[in-house]
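Bug report (template v2)

What were you trying to do?
Predict the complex of my protein with adenosine monophosphate.

What happened?
Run completed; filing so the output is reviewed.

Input:
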Amino acid sequence: MSHSSSNRLQVLNSHISSSMASEKDAALAAVPSDSPTIFDKIINKEIPANVVYEDDKVLAFRDIAPQAPTHILLIPKVRDGLTGLSKAEEKHCEILGHLLYTAKVVAKQEGLEDGYRVVINDGPKGCQSVYHIHVHLLGGRQMNWPPG
Ligand code: AMP
């Protein structure tokens, strides 16, 4: 490898690791809270989102920082205390089931016949950054295991 391409690689690597670090920092810095989140603004159409599915209970839109060719977030339109999965109570069973079923519907709509991944991050150690429960639907590439 030439000196200049090695330098370019170093710059690229440091860029990648600093953006990974800042994502992690953002999640770790996000304090679990009941305050309204950016997702309320999306639900209330105060900020735009690329919506791919909507019904009376659930909204699904493309993630602003996609981690796969298809990366969609599914959220309940009414949070009802569900800042994260760890806050789930028995009364939330219906919406939780509806979110998962909708993930399957949207995966089909997106043509993810060969498989996909569904993720719910919870709390600081789960790297949750937005405290309005959401299901990540990721697809369009081979997923790896274990996740990071
Ligand atoms: P989590 O880290 O599991 O809490 O996921 C929150 C997700 O919300 C991240 O993947 C962000 O990229 C995504 N996100 C944050 N703001 C927006 C936005 N305005 N539109 C779409 N996705 C967003």
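What did the reviewer find?
Residues 79 and 118 are 19 Å apart (CA to CA). DSSP finds three helices and five strands in the chain.
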